[in-house]
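>> received
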Amino acid sequence: MKYILKFALWLLGLNLYAQTANLNIELLKNKISELTIHELENSKAPSLQIAISLKDSLIFNEAFGLADIENNVAATSKTKYRTASVSKLWTATVAMMLVDKGLLNLDEPIQNYCPDFPKKEHIITTRQLLTHTSGIRSYIDLEEELKNAKNSQDSLDINNRYRQEMLGEFTRYTEIIKALDNFKNDPLIFEPGTDWHYSSQAYRVLACVLEGASNLTYQQLTKQYIFEPTSMNNTFEDDAWAIIPNRASGYRIQRGKPIRRADMRDVSENLPAGGHLTTALDLILFANSFLNEQYFLSDKIKLMSTNYIKDIENNSEKIPLWRYAIPNKENYGYGIMIFPSEDTKRFGHTGRQAGGSAILVMIPEKELSIATLTNVKGWNGYISFTKKIEEIISQM
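>> returned
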């Protein structure tokens, strides 16, 4: 109840910082608006929605471009976009909350909580699911797998598995465990804990673990632990069948080709790893509550936002900037990506999915959070655009 009251007061005082701090809000808005219009023109993205929080106060919450190109519908701050993998932040946060409550042990076998996932030749732990070190596969690369087929039966098996996976992308799931059927019997791609491989499928299993640990559904967990306490009233499951007001239409851009509608995709199978609709403001509400330790204390935040693959820290080779926009072993903790920085820590998550791209960046030392959403797959401005916004704020 105290969190609800605190956020109600926060919402009432959104303009407090603008009134008291030495910051020219109008000039700031103009500069960010100019930057965004320039980004839309260069990237050909249909729209961008941006929200920014500084010192717990909302200093920017605007949308630009079109939420629906065909019907000429302008994007607004209420337009709802696909989160894609940004949803992993919520799933990981719920996991750590259950750890805090003594309901979940990160190092026990996952079958203790999720018996629907078959035992493998090696034990898998929840910690490994969180850090993408479980060995559970990701999406099937049909062409690559067929290259490794030893005979016609192998090719047939691979094609059958691929067809099953494709069917899952057009199926409406209402239960987490049903979505596990498309991959749960597949072999691990490496022994858990010995390598790193980004896997949304592992986060689907993680949701099953959370349900077993709490005796609540994943939907109940996120609503009770994340969305309701932080007044995230514009975050919902991305139900392909439902009528959801202000839902953005999805598109795709590819270099040298005209913009087109997004690939058809029902993302309900991927709910714990990227199956929500949200607004930039709701992402900021989450960021503020996360950084203010309203979910758990700073030790958990530090753990989640520290690169899990420790030996990477000794790698002197410079990592290309673009790689930080993609989850990889150089930049991943527990459901959190660590972004490039020369002065202070930046973390959050990016997301890319049919019809949407998203990024949330949290910068604790500056008490700054930036959320950007768009209704297109193919937008590559995750890091560069966010850094430019940060530079504008730093120069004000």
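>> The radius of gyration is 21 Å.
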